[in-house]
Amino acid sequence: MERIRHTQAWAKLETLSTSVKRQHMRDWFASDPDRASRFTTAACGISLDYSKNRINNAVLEALFELAQQRNVSDKISAMFEGDIINTTENRAVLHTALRNFSGKPVIVDGKDVMPSVLATLEKMQAFTQRVQSGEHKGCTGKSIKKIVSIGIGGSFLGPKIVTEALKPYQNKALDVSFVANVDGCHIQDVLAKCDHEETLFVMSSKSFTTQETLQNTLTAKAWFLKQGANETDIAKHFVAVSSNVKAATEFGMEASNVFPMADWVGGRYSLWSAIGLPICLAIGFDNFKLVLQGAYEMDEHTRTAPYPSNLPVILAVLGVWYRNFMGAQSHVLLPYYHYLRGFPAYVQQLDMESNGKTTTLNGATVDHGTGPIIWGSEGTNGQHSFHQLIHQSNLPIPADFMFPLKVANQDDTHHAMLASNCFGQTQALMQGKTFEECYQDLAGQGLADEERTRLAAHKTMPGNKPSNTLLFEQLDPKTLGAMIAMYEHKVLIQGAIWDLNSFDQWGVELGKVLGNDVLDVIRGEKADTHLDASTAALIKRFNQEK
Ligand code: F6P
Questions:
Q1: Could you please report the per-residue DSSP string of 425-450?
Q2: Ligand 1 neighbour 213 (Cβ under 6 A)
Q3: CB-based contact 451:262 (threshold 8 Å)
Q4: Whether residue 145 is found in the same domain as residue 221
Q5: How far apart are CA 236 and CA 373, in angstroms?
Q6: Whether residue 154 has its Cβ less than 6 Å from ligand 1
Q7: Do 493 and 512 belong to one domain?
Q8: Does 281 lie in the same domain as 226?
Q9: Ligand 1: which of 86, 95, 161, 206 to mutate, judged by most atoms within 8 Å of the beta carbon?
Q10: Band of pLDDT at residue 530, cut at 50, 70 and 90
């Protein structure tokens, strides 16, 4: 693919950005009463108001042209059709097959994978049914009341945020905890609240080689046996999810207790697979299936909707506009919904592990920005923390606000306040407050003009800060599935525009290898002579404390 800077659309966008930087959204809204409605679209239960962005028709058209010139539609089709688009691991990328309700086959290496996808779903359904009904008994004949999900990265974040976001749909008889970090505090805190007779451990690791997950599972097993259980009881309380079934059984998992996943499911794209087993146990298989259904509907929307009404395409090209033409280096996610508080962390892995790269598919190095820093937290908390910077710093930080129009156990007073904060913030970011307005506000306070001018300068809000507002009727399983799939496709489309492989993660390998080497030195199994002085000193200090 030609270098992106050589495309016609890129040159057009560079010219347009010079002109846009001289304009203020405040003036666009004042002169165009139809702006909000023109830049609002909806699909799959999600409404996107993208009018508070630093765009006009010409910019949007040029962004869609860029997407076309970067063959975005071909990349979308290639993914859905099972082409080997993860070209460094020689794999297809088919998390979409996991939610393929079309009835059509999906061919990988000449074989339809749908029968195995459906067989795994049936296994998940049957197991969920047995546990939720109390039919599955533990080592002393008791039903399961506690699920401990052990996994990290995509084997943790997806199950955790979906379970958290769908709290109103959770089975009250089952309590689900998640353990990820190798910091022993995490698992000890969880085990301290467990009764081994009523606890089921779900160990999730696609590779079955992740140090944190293996160690946490060993600790859980040791704890379990220490409670008086014996080796034959383990099969009743430990199941595993992995693409490496052989390693799982060698680890001691009963073969019938291993839920398989295919290697063409990327970790950060895997909640739709058996990695979603903790979700099923928490909210029931039927609700999990609705999550899949919502994602499927977003898949169909993404494949078929023309760019101007295609939610993932719009979000993707807006991100490219800010990253490559408007100086943004990060993107903030602001879910104004407590149950979605984990969503920024989920998209952090989804986006940053996919597009935090600088090598294009043919091995060249990019000469432009690529994946942004993704961050954020639930609103309204951020307003009392980092919103100061978003409002008054000189860093352009595009924001995605998310708001459910209806919530379970809704309290109208609180919900109206939440809405007013969400919408008020997008308005303040867009229109700001001029020096003149601040100077006027300080009238009648007996201030000398110099002091009044000084204070007004501090109070001035530049505005022109871009935001998207995503509204959903309510965060039910289908809408959540659609929203997550929407962000998955946004990442795919941006990766296509930047010509990246969004589906490998070589950047995490070196840390793992060196970490294991440091561990050998800490344990005295290796000398430290090959280490830099800093790392050697840190290890020495650690060992002195022990
Ligand atoms: O962070 C690297 C990574 O491989 C992620 O992509 C993945 O989600 C996580 O580690 C856990 O991997 P696994 O599911 O193989 O334990």
A1: HHHHHHH-B-HHHHHHHTTTS---HH
A2: yes
A3: no
A4: yes
A5: 42
A6: yes
A7: no
A8: yes
A9: 206
A10: very high
Ligand 1, atom 10, residue with closest C-alpha: 153
- 142 and 11 share one domain: no
- Strand segments, DSSP code E, in 103-150 are 107-108, 111-112, 146-150
Residue whose Cα lies nearest atom 1 of ligand 1: it is: 153
**pLDDT, tens digit, 9 for 90 and up, residues 395-412:** 999 999 999 999 887 899
Q: Are residues 375 and 481 in the same domain?
A: yes
Does 205 contact ligand 1 (Cβ within 6 A)?
yes
DSSP code for 122: H
Q: Are 129 and 62 found together in one domain? A: no
Do 119 and 214 fall within a single domain? Answer: yes
CATH of the domain at 204: 3.40.50.10490
The C-alpha angle with vertex 453 and arms to 447 and 458, in degrees rounded to 5, equals 110
pLDDT digits (tens, 9 = 90+) for 491-512: 999 999 999 999 999 999 999 9
Distance (Å) from CA 264 to ligand 1 centroid = 13
Do 237 and 137 fall within a single domain? yes
CA pair distance 99, 79, nearest whole angstrom: 14
Residue 213 CA: nearest ligand 1 atom is 16
Per residue in 335-384, pLDDT tens? 999 999 999 999 999 999 999 999 999 999 999 999 999 999 999 999 99
Q: Is the dihedral of CA 253, 259, 260, 261 positive or negative?
A: negative
Q: What separation in Å is there between the alpha carbon of 152 and the centre of ligand 1?
A: 7
0.90 cut: is pTM over it?
yes
- Residue 89 above 90 pLDDT? yes
By annotation, the residues acting in catalysis are 353, 384, 512
- Tell me what pLDDT residue 410 has: 80
User: Distance, CA 211 to ligand 1 centroid (Å)?
Assistant: 10
| Ligand 1 proximity of 257 Cβ (cutoff 6 Å) | no
Is 207's C-beta closer than 6 angstroms to any atom of ligand 1? yes
CA atoms within 13 A on the CB side of 22: 4
Ligand 1 and 153: CB distance under 6 A: yes
Arithmetic mean of pLDDT, 193-197: 98
Number of domains in the chain: 3
**145 is in which domain, residue-wise?**
108-288
